[in-house]
Amino acid sequence: MGLNAEFAILLSVAMHVTWNLIARHQPAGAFPLWWVLLTHLVLLAPWGLWSLFTRVEWNPTLVALLVTSAGANAIYFAGLQLAYRKASAALVYPLVRSSPLLIAIWSWMLLGEQLSLSGWLGIGISVVGLLIMSISANGSSDKGALPWAFLAMLATSIYSMSDKAAVAQLPDMAAVIGFVSVGYALSWCLLTLMLKREQGRWWPAQRIKLAPMLVGGVCVGLAYALVVYAMRELPSAVVVAYSNSGIVMAALISVFVFHERFAWKYRLLGSVVILLGIFCLKFY
């Protein structure tokens, strides 16, 4: 693994875990994702969009990839929000993050990316670990969440594929942030419309505090951009599978720091299996 890609993934994981820790401590009615996406669009998007529209050599293929990634991102966030209304994040999120197996299949069929037996085995094992985590919440969740969770997973595989195809045409990290920001802008608009339809408001009833909003906005935008940037050097399925180590970190923190004992054995078992799969990916 190249050092640059490795550092990008590690930094992305740290930011992803930071954002999730922030989100779990926000009021239920605050809709923290709406606020942090808005913060990203205010703080980071202008810089990224300037690079995207002034330094990139545009062509019809890149436009199509941008539209695909942006649309799939919007579907992902909408599906995730709808799934969360019917089931806990403990059930939904591991299912959604099981996308590397689907990404590996798409990548092989459409981009010709080849993985070794160890690579396929690592992705398969890590997905089993995610499913073990998800099983821990099955008893208290509405199965009506599953179609929305699978929709979000499908959307993840789609935008990961288009991101991989596009990143070779993005000259620097600023352009990658701009590429990501287009999808986040569309996602934020869709979430705003959903909010208006369901609550009759154009913004959430509560606002999160300034410090969590700033940190969350920076982390959410950069975490995704770093994953895309790492796809310069690594297969898309491998990058997404590596980034799932953030779920392991979040699970360990919840058990050992916050002493959350609900289904802790499943979460620890799932974490061990995911880490085993990630170890196998070292030989992809």
Describe the structure.
- With 284 residues, the protein is mostly helical.
- It has one domain.
- It has 13 helices and no strands.
- It has helices at residues 3-24, 32-43, 45-55, 60-84, 89-96, 100-111, 117-135, 145-167, 173-199, 210-230, 236-243, 245-256, 264-281.
- The protein is globular, with a radius of gyration of 18 Å.
- The chain starts with a helix and ends with a helix.
- The relative contact order is 0.22.
Task: Furnish the topology, listing elements before pairings.
Blueprint: H1 3-24, H2 32-43, H3 45-55, H4 60-84, H5 89-96, H6 100-111, H7 117-135, H8 145-167, H9 173-199, H10 210-230, H11 236-243, H12 245-256, H13 264-281
Helix pairs in contact: 1-10, 1-12, 2-9, 2-10, 3-9, 4-8, 4-9, 5-7, 5-8, 6-8, 6-11, 7-13, 9-10, 12-13
Instruction: Give the fraction of residues assigned to helices.
Output: over 70%
- Please describe the biggest sheet, giving its number of strands, its sense, and whether it closes into a barrel: none
Number of domains as seen in the coordinates: 1
The backbone outline, from C-alpha atoms, is globular
Order of helices and strands: HHHHHHHHHHHHH
Class by SSE composition: mainly alpha
Oligomer: single chain
Number of strands: 0
Q: Mean pLDDT score, rounded?
A: 89
Straight-line N-to-C gap: 10 Å
Give the low-confidence spans: none
Residue fraction in strands: under 5%
Helical stretch tally: 13
Compute the CA-based radius of gyration: 18 Å
